[in-house]
Design a protein that fits this description.
The chain is mostly beta strands. The protein contains 1 helix and 38 strands. A 5-stranded mixed β-sheet has the order 16-23-22-19-18, with no helix packed on it. It is globular.
Amino acid sequence: MAKPTFVVLPVMFAYMAQLATTLNLPGQSVQSTVLINSAIYVFGGDVHLNTVANLYVLDVSQPWNCTTPAWSNSTNDTPDMLSAMDNAIWPSPDNNSFYIWGGDNYDRKPLIQSGFAQYNVVNRTWSRPITNPNTPKQRAGIVAAWTQGIAYIWGGKSNEYTGDNSTQEFDDIISFDMIKLLWNSLNVTGSIPLYRSWYTATILSDGQIVIIGGYIRRQLNATSDLALMSDIPVFKILNICVSAIHQHYDMDIPKRHGQYTSPTSRAHCCTDYISIIICCGSDGLRYYNDVVVLNTRTWSWTQPDIVGTAPTSRSGHSSVMVNGQMIMFFGYKRPLVYLNDVNVLDTRSTPFQWTGGFTPGPTTTMTSSGTEQSDVGVSGLGIGSVIGISVAGVFVVVVAAIVIRKPWRSHKKQSVHTYHQYQ
């Protein structure tokens, strides 16, 4: 009669161990997030008006419930790292490390090497790479898009929160060669867009980087305006050229201009890289929890059908796409309440669905261009690693956008003017 007891005890101990290791993370926002192999790394951010250097790791090799994600805490690996938020992040070509650069902080101090550092995910150690003297000036509100071992960053802003005595906005395009460890300021042709920061950046298969939203400044010493979602600059890597798309379609254009989230960015998908998904965000007055989609063939917006319970309206969140599922992290809502939740939007079939947990697919790795690859092929979307950011005062919105593997089904032309506002 004792045998059933011994069978049950290991199960009980395993369950208790899982409860013991479940992390109760603080609410936070404007962190940087990147997927490497089968883990998502979340660095830094704003925790109740305090900038942190926390490093959390989420295991996506196993299924988990949104109420108990498979978190581990690697913050002890960052004892010498200065706290940062609103910074860029991207993976190394060998997927053994990730880089961070730029950002700002509430201490209003400049960061060492403009916040440039590298974290080795194998050895769990930080380092500061030795680079050429052309390391760009520190700035915040930036997003990196990468391909073939080179990361591209456009725009951004420096001010008292980056340790400057004055405000400076940037309209240059800089690159970092991860093989040669070289920074460059690119000479581009075409009409350079207005100064912009806290935007989304999504790289397509043809080498075009699509910029959506954020804040623009029309001239020096003027106040910043929210960028229209119909104003979409496109940077062409192959010929180092900038062009701008100005939409004039009968399709309604989302009215929110600045802060949103999109699961992708510096990432690609396996085939056509057609659609970019934007979720949540704020226009400075209202907070949203809806989803809109940009078709980069027709440059038109649609609002897809979605089932399930949508997450709380928010800004300052980040997103990553894994196995066709957009995983969205944290953020803040009005009144200023910081969130520590994780939400999953399943895009592998239509209608999309907000689900209660994550389901892993085949073994997933990242290529040098940020593309999600699988031993048996990727289903659904490519992985999103672009994190854009939008600001309202000192608070920023992290944006990610997702690129879809296959063309979207035709949707009825419906208004995207109706948004859910957090009460």
